[in-house]
Design a protein that fits this description.
The chain contains 8 helices and 5 strands, in the order βααβααβααβαβα. By secondary structure, it is an alpha/beta fold. The protein has a single domain (2-141), classed as 3-Layer(aba) Sandwich (Rossmann fold). It has a 5-stranded parallel beta sheet, with helices on both faces.
Length: 142
Amino acid sequence: MKVFLDTNILLDVLNDNRPSWKLSSIIMEEVKVHRIEAVVTAQSIVDSYYIAPKSGTSRDVIDSFAQWLSNHVNVRPITVFEIISALRSGLPDFEDAVQVCCAEAEGCDVFVTNDKQLLGGNYGTSMLLLTPQQFVDKMRRQ
């Protein structure tokens, strides 16, 4: 199963005070043991460097996590194709649209996010849009 991890999933793993920390950490363990193939954008790693320190995460922890991601997940660029697709997508949030378009371009089966706005819509994608809880539950059923 090919799974796209939204930026907020990375931020969960970097901050154990976030509500979905444990669930997102379980997902990363599944990535680590190769039970799932994970995809993130390079921009998600960049955004994590900017956002995570605001909640007290040290640069050393972020550096280690970024290195781990580069060894365990498919870190993909955002191309002009995804930018144009996002502009045409009809999604109300451009950043979300770019992430969804990248996930679709990678052929992901599932998009895991905590973004309630994204989860609440039907955007014509064939991917399952799931919360970390829904995804962990799905993995346990398989």
